[in-house]
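Private note to self, pasted from the team thread so I don't lose it. Backbone tokens:
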């Protein structure tokens, strides 16, 4: 399966964030809107998952796309949620898996991102 995954040029990332104090409820509402948007508008998004720790002060995100073009399309659509989302979290780190072009790197270099390729 790894070899096929490589040939398909799938790209995915894991994000670890700190939830800002008092922002958990607001963040949940934003996530609900984001998930609905992705479900209705992004057929090349293969996975889009959010997980909170038990204290609800950390959010872990896993996103998975068919290719870089689909990931960039997602980011264009995400812009409408960016202010509310980033207003509620601080990114601790990002682990990026798969082929990441310069456009993607120019976005993710602003965060503590590790790029992993096979």
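Design output:
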């Amino acid at each position: 399966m790894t070899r096929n995954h490589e040939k398909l040029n799938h790209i995915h990332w894991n994000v670890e964030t700190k939830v800002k104090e008092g922002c958990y409820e607001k963040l949940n509402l934003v996530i609900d809107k984001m998930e609905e948007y992705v479900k209705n508008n992004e057929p090349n998004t293969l996975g889009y998952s959010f997980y909170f720790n038990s204290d609800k002060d950390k959010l872990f995100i896993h996103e998975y796309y068919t290719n870089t073009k689909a990931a960039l399309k997602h980011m264009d659509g995400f812009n409408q949620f960016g202010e509310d989302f980033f207003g509620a979290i601080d990114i601790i780190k990002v682990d990026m898996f798969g082929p990441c072009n310069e456009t993607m790197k120019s976005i993710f270099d602003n965060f503590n991102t590790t790029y992993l390729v096979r």
